[in-house]
Amino acid sequence: MAVCINKMSLNSNKKNSPAQLTGAIPLEQFKYVIEKRIEHYQQNHKGFCVFVLEFSLSDNSYAHKKTDFTEYIGKILHNSIKHEKDCYTLDQKNRFITFLGESNTNLAIITINKIINDINQQLNEYIELDVGIAQYPQDGLVYDEIIHAANPINSSIKRDHKLNLSINPRTNNLQNPKVPNKERLFNHLSYLVNNICSYNKFLSQHSAQVTIGAILLAKELDLPWYEIERIAVASLLHDIGYTAFPPNIFKKSEKLTPEEWVLVKAHPYIACEQILRPLQVFDDYIPIIQNHHEYIDGSGYPKGKKGDQIPLGSQIISIIDSYQAITAEMSYRKSFDFEGIVDTYIRNAGIKWEKDLITVFTAIIAEPVFRKKLTGNKNIEFEKTVF
To answer: Is the peptide bond between 247 and the residue preceding it cis, with omega within 30 degrees of 0?
Structure first.
């Protein structure tokens, strides 16, 4: 949908209210939707997110176009919400309040990112945006508490800089994550990658293939470039904790013993606390690496984290890591065929990984070209993949 703002003109004879023009539902109806969802939480324990978007004019000379801007933002919201029960309203302060049925804030942020980018493509010159998110039940137990928490001034998501949105830079409210000194990062990364290559060829090839797959999936999710970069670096180093173990653990032809499993489950801790944290330059990547074996139902390791406690980047790496595992030929089992792969992911959607991530992933692996990129060249050179 392309709209030329310069050609917009306000029609003073319009009889429709701003809410009607934007497709927003009445505020009371919106409140009813939220309250019913809160009631249902007692049965299904499925949370949700509320997203508040407000805008101000960058220049008062655009005041005559404010209704047009409001209508355009409403159309963006209407075209962006994915689920049948998702909805939005326009309150008395002319703020858009959107209900997103995502139980995981990370997934809601993907949708919100797209909304903000679409708005900025046309309106960046004319308006300044401010946003906030609240999650039920973490940020409030009743309607008023949730809306208050989602206010851009109050939003904990915004305050913690977890909302990686492409906001008009004039607002200066949300910044891209701090980028460490590139040269220092590159030098340390190069050294660690060489260590992985020297340690074990299988591990270096696996790390390269997981990195390629994680980048492809992150791009498919339309994540910002800086988030894709974080995921890429974390993917390269996600298994570096293994380099502290005897290399023969990779040469076993049978399943691991219980004692060896205890050792294996320690590799995220070793990677983060013993190898990466002392270097300091990897602090921004540690949370992703630390949690790449956690599952949303709490059955993962090392800490049994659940749902929103697991970074989106960790889930992306986990999905690709699992794909590499089940498509590999082992002495004690055959690799999965395509139907078996899809079945594995569908059965674990909402258990190990967020359903929406699996919906996207299973759709893209249906393409043979994508599957070829994921499996790649078994003799891939890790250093060349990275640098």
So the answer is: no
* pLDDT value of position 343: 92
Q: What angle do CA 318, 308, 364 make, to 5 degrees?
A: 40
**Residue 82 or residue 179, greater confidence:** 82
Single out the residue of 152, 220, 241 nearest to residue 364, CA to CA: 220
Residue ranges and CATH numbers for the domains of the chain are 16-159 (3.30.70.270), 182-386 (1.10.3210.10)
Instruction: Name the DSSP class of 168.
Output: -
One-letter identity of residue 117: N
Handedness of CA 374, 379, 382, 384 (dihedral sign): negative
pTM of the entire predicted model: 0.63
Hey, which residues does 23 pair with through a beta bridge? none
Burial 21-39 (b: 16+ CB within 10 A, else e): bbebbeeeebbebbeebbe
- 377 pLDDT more than 60: no
DSSP codes joined into one string, 219-273: HHTT--HHHHHHHHHHHHHTTGGGGGS-GGGGS-SSPPPHHHHHHHTTHHHIIII
The tokens describing 256, both together, are 């691991």
215 vs 374: CA distance, rounded Å: 10
Task: Name the pLDDT band for 253 (thresholds 50, 70, 90).
Answer: low
Say if residues 167 and 173 touch (Cβ distance below 8 Å): yes
Q: Distance (Å, rounded) from C-alpha 40 to C-alpha 7?
A: 46
Report CA torsion sign: 152, 155, 161, 166. negative
User: What share of the chain in percent tops pLDDT 70?
Assistant: 79
